[in-house]
Amino acid sequence: MKIKVIIGSLILIAGLSVQSHAGDPGVSKGAGVRDIKVTSPARDRDLDVTVWYPAAASGDIVPVGADRIFQGTDAFADAPMRPGTYPLVVFSHGSGASIHKMAWLAGKLAGKGFIVAGPDHPGTTSGDSTPEDTPKLWQRTDDLSNVISALLADPDWGKVIAADRIGVLGFSLGGAAALELAGARADLEAYARYCETYPDMADCVWFAGGRGYRNREAIEVAKLDLRSVDKARFEQSNLDPRVRATVLVDPSLTLAFDEASLAGIRSSLHFINLGDPETVPVSVKADRLAGLVPQATHSWIRDAVHFSFLPVCADGAHEFMQLVGETDTLCTDGSDRTRIELHEELERNVTDAFQRMLEVRN
Q1: DSSP per residue over 316-332, as a string?
Q2: Distance (Å, rounded) from C-alpha 275 to C-alpha 230?
Q3: Cβ distance 265 to 290 under 8 Å?
Q4: Could you give the strand order of the β-sheet that contains 161-171, starting from the edge strand earlier in sequence?
């Protein structure tokens, strides 16, 4: 959720002049990548979905997610898939970002034997996001369930996906959506009270800010009264029983989830917070939630910050942000450890969690 306040204007500008920057040295080992369309009946439009998968190391190499601010992560475009069947992980990006910015992790998971598929969520993605659309988690959860259904029904993807081993990975607002897919239900009044109590939290600033984005242009919007959100839809169950494992990184809405619904979750969950217990904002601090879910674990990525989950910044990113009058917060982590080092710990943490929860052998 915190991405939105800072990243919106930067992504609009960065997207005008995309450059190819290699990510970590070399290509994500054995990772193929393919962009597909998935029809969304609920949205009456197609979703842009990117799929990473275990692939033969052949074909054209593309730097997924590269722009003026962030390095891309190389993968083999449309490479042949390695023979076998693989677990599916659907991936929900943070508010105001895009699934391509998650390539640094998705490619690693693909190299480890997972098929990873993520949509860009209309209304809360880069260049297309508004305060009004942000709390509509029922749209994000429908996107994710719809991607699962479409891939399982597809004659090519369906035969390589292990339908009994499906997981969800979510970051920030995507983490809140992933938690709802596991069976959690949010309370609208609790969310409104949270913003009244913590008006300086980034999501609450966003709701009060009067700014949004459409067609990659900034627009003026009215301040959002959270109590005007459709209460029935906000509080509905979005459980997808096909999901066996969920990894949630700095999930938003942590103070808005109904405790009884958390206690009723029967699938396996792993929460990750970026930072130390004393530094993680209350908006995403998840150790309390983990304690309420029967089969949940929790870990801290010490010295990280919320933006450490974004890609490694490109050469010249600091200078570019100064040029457009922005701070370099997107590229600043919480310690002497580099973002690459923090990513390495995150990759191990996420991969180990999914391998354990989905019973995947190395």
Answers
A1: THHHHHHHTT--SGGG-
A2: 33
A3: no
A4: 61-64, 73-77, 31-40, 45-54, 115-119, 86-92, 161-171, 245-249, 268-274, 296-301
Token output for 313? 């910044």
3-state secondary structure at position 164? strand
Tokens 């891939």 — which residue? 151
* Per-residue confidence band for 183, with pLDDT thresholds at 50, 70 and 90: very high
> Which amino acid is present at 2?
K
**250/278 Cα distance (integer angstroms):** 14
Tens-digit pLDDT profile for residues 125-181: 999 999 999 999 999 999 999 999 999 999 999 999 999 999 999 999 999 999 999
DSSP state of 34: E
Two tokens, residue 275 = 């930072």
* pTM of the full structure: 0.92
CB neighbour class for 225 (10 Å; exposed up to 12, middle 13-18, buried from 19): exposed
Q: Which residues contact 193 (CB under 8 A, 6 or more apart)?
A: none
Q: What is the DSSP string of 99-143?
A: GGGGHHHHHHHHHTT-EEEEE--TTEETTEE-TTTTT-HHHHHHH
Token duo for residue 191: 């969310």
CB 333 within 8 A of CB 310: no
- Reference 338, options 29, 71, 66, 8; nearest CA is 71
Indicate the helix (H) or strand (E) that contains 234. Answer: helix 231-234
Report residue 128: phi and psi, to 5°.
-145, 80
| Burial class of residue 341, CB neighbours in 10 A (0-12, 13-18, 19+) | middle
Kind of pairing between the strands at 128-129 and 217-220: unpaired
User: At which residue do the structure tokens 């005007």 appear?
Assistant: 228
**Minimal CA–CA distance to 119: which of 138, 97, 152, 104?**
97
Q: Note the residue count of the chain.
A: 362
